[in-house]
Design brief:
Elements lengths: L2 E5 L13 E5 L8 E4 L5 H14 L7 H6 L4 E5 L5 E10 L10 E9 L8 H15 L4 E6 L4 H5 L3 E2 L7 H6 L7 E6 L1
Parallel strand pairs: 6-7
Antiparallel strand pairs: 1-2, 2-3, 3-4, 4-5, 5-6, 7-9, 8-9
Length: 186
Amino acid sequence: MTTATPVTDPAPDALPGPASRVRIADAQDVSQPFVRIAHAQDAAELADLSRPFVRSGALRERSVPLFARHAPDFLVAVAPGGRLEGCAGLRVYPDGPAKGGGPAGVLYNFCVAGHRQGRGVGALLLRTALTTARARALGTLFTATTGDGRLFGRYGFAPAAACQAPGSWAQSLDPRRDARILARAV
């Protein structure tokens, strides 16, 4: 049986939650990645991890300095050897889209290295993002995807209209990418 077990690690203030590192573990296999909050020093590796998805049109290109500046937004899946195998940015919008609805979050730049896809890394990142969103008392979590969105659907995300999302984020979406907006209550 596989479970998610918290591992203590001091976390920056950007994404507080019950644990900043989570490891998928069972008694026989400790070779699975854990999730932690990214550091500015991870910026080049975040850019490298994202590059194949940028080339395919699934993600926007972000510079290494931009990744460094926004590193505290990112949850990263780290292999036992220290290599990043996936990432997901989580940005908080204090004034959520609904009046009185409280803050909302947006998952962005969600990607998993090709050799780790289908092995639970994306699910680990998404579960950790949901736990973090709950800890931050977010009302709704949004994302945009150019893919099929199956992973998001398994975790309760459903199609949403742009007017339901944080306005500045929804307006920043490139209509040429034909991304679908998905959301779920946290």
